Amino acid sequence: MKTYLLLIVAILCGSCTGEVGEHGAGARWYSTAQVESGRLVFTKNCAVCHKSDASGTPDWKKRLDDGFFPPPPLNGTAHAWHHSISVLKEYIADGGASMGGRMPGFKDKLRESEMLDAIAYFQSYWSDDVYGMWKERNGLDIGENEAR
Fold first, then answer.
1. Domain that holds residue 86
2. What is d(CA 146, CA 130) in angstroms, rounded to the nearest whole number?
């Protein structure tokens, strides 16, 4: 029953999941196909720390015993929306060491298109309001051939 209700909510609130396609006032830079591809990339490489729904660690602002911060949510409830796509790609590629974190870099594991797909996936969790603030703050700093 719970799954059925969630499915109905997802259908009725398609824009809440980022599945707005390439048209309309709430259009997003990515396609539904990128979100699906990104789900696979994210599940394989990111979900172990950021959880499969990109919700990260609930208490992500509190340092752990080792002095590091835990993995933040990427679902629009933390600071990821403050960053442009180029910064997000850089962080995915190089990891978090340069910013005092411990996230590993994925430049030797993921192609740039896979990184963009992973970003599309976690951005699909962003509300239209959060996505709108991100777009206003950062613009779309992706190349024409990167958006699908």
1. 30-138
2. 22
